[in-house]
Specification:
mainly alpha; 12 helices; 68% helix; 258 residues
Length: 258
């Protein structure tokens, strides 16, 4: 599958920000984590989202008597402290640190299996840093895990455009691989193949052989599902050559080849 020789102009605007989750969804954090920690996370999520919408008017969050969120949990306490910056720093100075805190909570929630919490904090991080392709990709990937394919595709389309216009080949590759997996889930195998090929070439340009190997592994899955078994073997051996021996997907590759 050939990649078009002409690329969109670097001035092309990124895809619009996906809409915020419905009013019901922040409450799902409490359903998923019905503990004092869940309450602290829910409050941080709700307040930080309002802060992001308020823009420069967010100075109201620093009104006298405002309290920072707190928790003794060692895994997320520092990230929650970062989110409390809405009450202490000017709006423009706070956004990057707030986004980093939200991203750390999303990573923790994913590790704990809290899919809703992970997706919502990833969404928050990507809204707070709207020019960060990596945050947009994470938001798309975690919404895919949540089963929200529409919002996942919106975030991944934005991530691809941001990475392309910023000349960030690694982010471009990772975003395309994530988008390809979304299309693979839906049975859109030709679309998935297109994204995996884009991701593969970008990974090679960036010198990331293991990432290129992951793209070959993903292409193996497409060829198996479309019964192109001769081509599947080619992708399998390329993946074997490119994966580092300690790559977390290497055992899965052995299973797929078998």
């Amino acid at each position: 599958m050939r990649e078009s020789a002409s690329r969109p102009s670097p001035r092309r605007q990124p895809a619009p920000l996906p809409p915020a989750p419905s009013a019901r969804r922040p409450l799902d954090v409490l359903v998923e984590i019905p503990t004092p920690l869940g309450l602290a996370l829910w409050r941080a999520l709700a307040d930080a989202a309002l802060w992001a919408d308020a823009g420069p008017g967010a100075a109201l969050f620093r009104a006298p008597g405002a309290e920072a969120w707190g928790t003794d949990d060692p895994d997320v306490g520092g990230a929650l402290w970062s989110l409390s910056l809405v009450r202490r720093l000017p709006w423009r100075e706070s956004a990057p640190e707030l986004a980093a805190g939200a991203a750390r909570i999303a990573e923790w929630a994913e590790q704990q299996g809290h899919k809703e919490t992970a997706a919502q904090f990833a969404h928050l991080a990507a809204r707070l840093e709207p020019g960060a392709a990596a945050y947009a990709t994470t938001a798309g990937r975690l919404h895919r895990r949540l089963g929200d394919a529409v919002r996942a595709q919106l975030w991944l389309r934005r991530a691809v455009r941001l990475a392309r216009t910023g000349g960030r080949e690694i982010d471009f590759a990772i975003a395309h691989l994530a988008w390809g997996n979304l299309d693979h889930d839906a049975g859109r195998f030709l679309h998935a193949e297109h994204h995996f090929c884009k991701g593969y070439r970008a990974a090679l340009r960036a010198g990331r052989r293991s990432l290129a190997g992951a793209a070959q592994h993903d292409l193996l899955g497409v060829k198996i599902h479309t019964q192109r078994f001769d081509e599947a073997w080619e992708h399998a051996w390329r993946a074997v050559e490119m994966y580092a021996a300690h790559h977390p997907r290497f055992p899965l590759l052995g299973h797929d080849i078998a």
